[in-house]
Design goal:
It is a single chain. By secondary structure, the chain is an alpha/beta fold. It folds into 3 domains: about 80 residues, no CATH class; about 150 residues, Rossmann fold (3-Layer(aba) Sandwich), CATH 3.40.50.1860; about 120 residues, 3-Layer(aba) Sandwich (Rossmann fold), CATH 3.40.50. Helix content is about 40%, strand content about 10%. It has 16 helices and 8 strands. Helix 8 packs across helix 16 and helix 14 crosses helix 15. The protein starts with 5 loop residues before the first helix and ends with a helix. Bound molecules: iron/sulfur cluster (2 copies). One iron/sulfur cluster (SF4) binds next to helix 2 and helix 3. One iron/sulfur cluster (SF4) binds next to helix 4 and helix 5.
């Protein structure tokens, strides 16, 4: 069967070469990544030698270019598609190969044992969703295993319990959602995950699916075709519980807090207000904004597989820049709502020597202090 050339599959002919995509790309000034000229080259000579472009792994799939393109070209999809060619050829960075293999074998990119997936909930009583529940909580790979992120999942489970939400998880049967898999170019593995996860999640019969990570939220909401299940990021559910008076704070957290919008929650899915509503509802907290907020938020460089590949931007990480922007607001806490942002920004605070001035916390960790 003859397949359409990439230029037609992705409708690249709609491109007017205005450059808004590259103008908005946070990596364009730091590396060779130039999405506008890549599109131009593809239109002139569609057989691009993908192996000659290591900067293809620099893209974080933040989708700033997609949001800014006036012709709906969706430039980042070209990068995902070209990464697909690299995956098919087998010539990919070793760390990307290891992450994909970990997902295929163990259901998570770090290759941790499937049977340890519930370790985050040790000592807590969490219902098996298959006993019946109205909310299925998809914990996600990083919150399930990473010691720095596990407290976020525990804080959310505690808050849901205190608010009387009937929720459950899939325990050790939970699997990687595949959001990053698709963005690393492994379409075949992604489709397999959609089929397997979709069937398992539907079998629970829950009305709502809530995620810790904006990355899981994004793919479940936009790429799984869940017509009868409402997909929520946890900030949406927690903001609702506070609004309804079901989640009540009993303590004050006296702190100035600034909030970093994750790309997959904010600019890709328009969830800007709920995280802020939670922060503002916490007694004692003062929310201060960074200049680049909401749609203009600076990517932390953790998405699109970048947690597992360094890319060519080795010196001036975007996360380094971001923690200085946060510290300049005078905030003591940089609040995040994404496991990748949490890890990249915690690391950046250390590397930039800002530990005395700025603490990075997930919103749920701040909520947990006030319950
Ligand atoms: S913003 Fe859209 S139309 Fe403009 S150069 Fe980029 S892809 Fe082409
Ligand atoms: S998705 Fe983000 S990093 Fe990738 S090309 Fe577009 S703007 Fe640049």
């Amino acid at each position: 069967m003859k397949t359409e050339p990439i230029t037609e599959q992705l409708e690249l002919f709609g491109c007017i070469q205005c450059g808004k995509c590259t103008g908005g790309c946070p990596l364009a000034r730091k590396t060779e990544l130039n999405i506008r000229s890549m599109i131009y080259n593809m239109l002139v000579e569609p057989e691009l030698d993908v192996h000659a472009h290591p900067e293809l792994w620099d893209c974080t799939t933040c989708f700033t270019c997609v949001v800014r393109c006036p012709k709906d070209v969706r430039p980042a999809e070209l990068i995902i598609s070209l990464r697909g060619q690299l995956v098919e050829s087998g010539r990919i960075p070793e760390t990307i190969g290891t992450a994909l293999m970990g997902i295929f074998r163990q259901g998570n990119p770090n290759g941790m044992a499937r049977e340890d997936r519930s370790a985050w909930a040790q000592g807590m009583e969490i219902k098996d969703a298959r006993q019946g529940c109205s909310v299925l909580y998809h914990v996600g790979c990083i919150p399930s295993y990473d010691l720095r992120v596990q407290p976020v999942a525990r804080a959310l489970a505690r808050a849901l319990t205190e608010a009387g939400v009937d929720f459950g998880t899939l325990g050790t049967d939970e699997n990687c959602c595949g959001n990053e898999v698709r963005r690393m170019g492994e379409e075949g593995l992604f489709e397999m995950l959609v089929e397997e996860n979709g069937e398992l999640i539907r079998s629970v019969g829950a009305d709502r699916l809530v995620t810790t990570s904006p990355h899981c939220f994004n793919t479940f909401k936009n790429e799984y075709g869940f017509d009868d299940i409402e997909v929520l990021h946890y900030t949406q559910l927690v903001a609702e519980l506070i609004e309804q008076g079901r989640l009540k704070f009993t303590k004050e957290v006296k702190a100035k807090v600034t909030y970093h919008d994750p790309c997959f929650l904010g600019k890709q899915n328009g969830v800007f207000e709920e995280p802020r509503a939670i922060i503002k509802a916490i007694p004692g907290v003062e929310l201060v904004e960074m200049d680049r907020n909401r749609e203009r938020s600076l990517c932390c460089e953790g998405g699109g597989g970048r947690m597992w590949v360094e890319g060519t931007n080795k010196e001036e990480r975007l996360a380094f820049q971001r923690v200085h922007e946060a510290a300049d607001t005078g905030a003591e806490i940089l609040a995040v709502a994404c496991p990748f942002c949490l890890l990249t920004l915690v690391d950046a605070v250390k590397v930039q020597g800002l530990e005395e001035r700025l603490k990075v916390m997930d919103i749920m960790e701040i909520v947990n202090l006030a319950l």
